[in-house]
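Tip: read the tokens left to right.
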């Protein structure tokens, strides 16, 4: 199938329009992202949550929340990245430092 490109006035389309081989590195689509929910007061124990920090994220069920941290029971593959804002505890849970949290969302 051949596409026909028309000129408008003195303007002509850039060469390579429609071709994957000739993309211009200075052009691109950057979506506007909305921040995730970060209100800690709305979190309830046993909720599935995703906690995002500077260097990773933790996914799991909320066990407990304190003034300084959140305690999660992580999913089997619930630690992604380095997640230095989270610390493994002896009982298998993970303590997440509230100071290292960028955002939180519930499932």
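Filled-in amino acids:
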């Amino acid at each position: 199938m051949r596409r026909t490109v028309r000129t408008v006035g003195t303007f002509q389309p850039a060469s390579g329009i429609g071709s994957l081989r000739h993309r211009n590195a200075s052009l691109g689509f950057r979506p506007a992202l909305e921040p995730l929910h970060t209100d800690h007061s709305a979190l309830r124990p046993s909720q599935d949550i995703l906690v995002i920090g500077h260097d990773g994220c933790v996914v799991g069920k909320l066990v407990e929340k304190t003034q300084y941290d959140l305690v999660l029971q992580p999913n089997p593959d619930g630690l992604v990245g380095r997640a230095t804002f989270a610390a493994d505890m002896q009982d298998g849970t993970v303590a997440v430092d509230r100071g290292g949290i960028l955002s939180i969302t519930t499932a």
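The chain has a mean pLDDT of 79. The beta strands are 48-53, 56-65, 69-81, 86-88, 94-97, 101-106.
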